[in-house]
Write a structure and sequence with these properties.
The complex is a heterodimer.
Chain A (H helix, E strand, L loop, with lengths): L4 E6 L3 H14 L3 E7 L3 E3 L4 H4 L6 H4 E3 L9 E4 L2 E5 L4 E4 L4 E3 L2 E4 L3 E3 L17 H11 L5 E7 L9 H15 L6 E6 L9 H13 L2 E4 L4 E5 L4 E4 L4 E3 L2 E5 L2 E3 L1 H5 L25 E3 L12 H19 L12 E8 L2 E7 L12 H18 L5
Parallel strand pairs in A: 1-2, 1-9, 2-5, 9-19, 11-12, 11-17, 12-13
Antiparallel strand pairs in A: 3-4, 6-7, 7-8, 10-18, 14-15, 15-16, 20-21
Helix pairs in contact in A: 1-8
Chain B lengths: L3 E6 L7 H11 L6 E6 L4 H12 L2 E7 L4 E6 L12
The chains are: A alpha/beta, B alpha+beta.
Bound molecules: flavin-adenine dinucleotide (FAD).
Chain lengths: 380, 86
């Protein structure tokens, strides 16, 4: 290897930015870090939930991604078209060839509603800033009706988000004193509202207490946006006035195109502890793009970043030390304006979240600034 | 005996993984054909039979392979809809 190791990171979202900063601190002059992203538009995605009830704006969530990255890192503004894992070269869509010694895939997930032939823009979604703004625009003028919050397919990022959306919309309508004019229906593909049982025992009764109609084993088959009916594979149908659906997710197309080991949907096959891509000692994946059976969440990427940084450092120093990710994820779960749960778990220990509390709400509220100042920059 | 048209190995994946794999696999076979899904998740014992019943499919057999199970599910007719678009 040349005197400076070449580390290339694909994607400057949550995972890519944190790992770049962690590496920069550990490696100082030992490596040259290149980050590739088509836009370097960093979005604080948890804020979409505040947007749907009119408490946040698109502008408030977005920062210039280049400013969050190490000053000395190279920033390549392009999309990756493919990777040659044998030659160790990344090719961009504007024909740049970028060689690497270590590669980190941090390209997140993408929304693929176009894969459902019946999807059109009459179906609301809040997984983009524009979509979230449209939800609020529509919601604020509604005076009555049935609002359905539904999940097109699994996996999707931030598993609590659709449940939080249902609870926040309930809270919003209560504050406007028009909740009694609405039905809120929440559909879940599995036999409970939330996949993690220990969290569900708190959350599902809470939703039901608030009058949210929870329909389980509801796997979306089709939506008729003219008649405004949602059909399930299990033979149920729900009439709605407003439908908010989590669109299907996949990993980025360059993964399949490059033959990077992956599962259906393009999710990169990684070792659950070392985070190395299957069969490759110098290629890692972080965040939403992996096939790990844990939440696709920013906090997952945050906990994975130091593991990858330490493993790369060990490899550069020719040390045999191996650092292992234990599956740690923490997140807030908003139950109403002013209250939140805190969920903390890993591969072996399920979460026991306790009761919704004000303390976690304030923490959640402050987290955007903490994220941009400390988390993204790799300081904590 | 129904034909097992597709076998899906969902070992190593936990709730709701095996059920989601089964749902996906059933979409790709014909009515009357069966799918076998391997699962080592205890939750599947409850989930898969309950879902199959609700969705109108038939749970043919739960095979015990020692440290995992094979759930054989036969695809049923699609449930008819209240309204059909003209
Ligand atoms: C409504 C909502 C609420 C959420 N709430 C929470 C929460 O409370 N807590 C939490 O921890 N997480 C939350 N999340 C999830 C969190 O935002 C994501 O899991 C996190 O951003 C994943 O980080 P990532 O780096 O894997 O992907 P991203 O942050 O999405 O970044 C991926 C990057 O890759 C780039 N990219 C894509 N394709 C290419 C290509 N071909 N070449 C180069 N670059 C490419 C993109 O431009 C992007 O910058 C929430 C998400 C949503 C939608």
């Amino acid at each position: 290897m040349a005197d400076k190791a070449k580390i290339v990171i694909i994607g400057a979202g949550t995972g890519g930015t944190i790992v770049a900063n962690k590496l920069n601190k550990k490696l100082k002059r030992k490596a040259e870090i290149t980050v590739i992203d088509p836009e370097f538009k960093h979005i604080y995605q948890p804020g979409y939930l505040f947007q749907i009830v009119g408490r946040e704006t698109e502008k408030g969530l977005i920062r210039d991604g280049t400013k969050l990255l190490p000053k000395k890192s190279k920033k390549v503004r392009a999309a990756v078209d493919r990777v040659d894992l044998e030659k160790q070269v990344v090719y961009t869509n504007d024909n740049q060839e970028i060689p690497y010694d270590y590669l980190i895939i941090a390209s997140g997930s993408r929304l693929v509603p176009q894969k459902l032939e019946w999807w059109n823009d009459k179906i609301h979604q809040f997984y983009t800033p524009q979509g979230a703004a449209k939800v609020y625009d529509h919601l604020k003028d509604m005076t009555e009706g049935t609002i359905v919050i539904s999940i097109a397919s699994m996996p999707y990022k931030c598993p609590p988000a659709p449940l939080e959306a249902a609870l926040l919309i309930d809270d919003y309508l209560r504050r406007k004193k028009i909740r009694d004019k609405f039905n809120i229906v929440f559909t879940s593909p599995i036999n409970r509202a939330f996949s993690i049982e220990t969290v569900n025992t708190i959350v599902q009764p809470l939703m039901e207490d608030r009058g949210i109609d929870v329909r389980t084993f509801f796997n979306v088959d089709e939506v008729d946006t003219e008649e405004k009916v949602l059909y399930s594979l299990e033979g149920e149908e729900i009439d709605y006035d407003m439908l908010i659906m989590i669109p299907p997710h996949e990993a980025q197309p360059f993964i399949e195109k490059s033959g990077i080991p992956h599962e259906e949907g393009g999710w990169v096959e990684v070792d659950r502890e070392t985070l190395k891509v299957k069969n490759y000692d110098n290629v890692y994946a972080i965040g939403d793009t992996t096939n790990l059976p844990i939440s696709k969440a920013g906090s997952t990427a945050h906990n994975q970043a130091p593991i990858i940084a330490k493993n790369i450092l060990a490899s550069i120093k020719n040390s045999n030390k191996v650092y292992k990710y234990d599956g740690h994820v923490q997140c807030f779960f908003i139950t109403e304006i002013g209250k939140s749960l805190f969920i903390d778990f890993n591969y072996t220990n399920p979460p026991y979240p306790g009761k919704p509390s004000r303390r976690y709400w304030w923490f959640k509220l402050a987290f955007k600034e903490l994220y941009y100042r400390f988390v993204a920059k790799g300081i904590v | 005996m129904v034909e097992v048209a597709k076998v899906v190995d969902a070992r190593g994946s936990f709730c709701p993984g095996p059920l989601m794999e089964l749902i996906r696999a059933l979409k790709s076979v014909e009515v009357g054909q069966a799918v076998e899904v391997y699962s080592e998740d205890q939750g599947s014992l409850k989930d898969i039979p309950a879902w199959a019943e609700k969705a109108g499919h038939k749970l043919i057999e739960i095979k015990d392979y020692g440290d995992y199970r094979g759930f054989i599910v036969e695809k049923g007719e699609k449930k008819s809809r209240r309204r059909k678009k003209e």
